[in-house]
Amino acid sequence: MRIAIAALLALPLLAAAEPYPKGDPVVGRKLAAAADCAKCHSERVGGDGSRMYTRPERKVKNPRQLLTQIGVCNTQLNTGWFPEDEEHVAAFLNRDYYRFK
Ligand code: HEC
Question: Which atom of ligand 1 is the closest one to the Cα of 66?
């Protein structure tokens, strides 16, 4: 009984800790690699391009902005990603770089 109540209380916390509930970071990682997202970023910030996501002056400050920016960059590449795909990529970038809760 006590365990059941604890589990119920934990549910909303779990939901709040996941900004992209439908995004799968494993799928997102593959999509981002296949689309060559890093190439263009690397031309600007050097290295493997991931500094674009970690630089101190980075633009993206919350989960919504991350989705928006992925949409903007994605449009330049013409990947034909669906909104679900963008959510996968957001989940990947969030897991590895942004860490929004
Ligand atoms: C044509 C070049 C180009 C391509 C291709 C590109 N990006 Fe970008 N991306 C940029 C530039 C330039 C910025 C920095 C924008 C700024 O500072 O205002 C950026 C910034 C970002 C940011 C925000 C970084 C921050 O400041 O927090 C994300 C997230 C991002 N890109 C994701 C992607 C993804 C995902 C892809 C692959 C679908 C991609 N980009 C492909 C040029 C590109």
Answer: 29
pLDDT digits (tens, 9 = 90+) for 54-91: 999 999 999 999 999 999 999 989 899 999 999 999 99
Q: How far is the CA of 64 from the centre of ligand 1 (A)?
A: 15
Tell me how far apart the alpha carbons of residues 99 and 90 are, in angstroms, rounded to a whole number: 11
Please tell me the residue having the least CA distance from ligand 1 atom 16: 59
**Total number of residues shown for the chain:** 101
Beta carbons of 72 and 66 less than 8 angstroms apart = no
Q: Which residue is closest in CA terms to ligand 1's atom 38?
A: 74
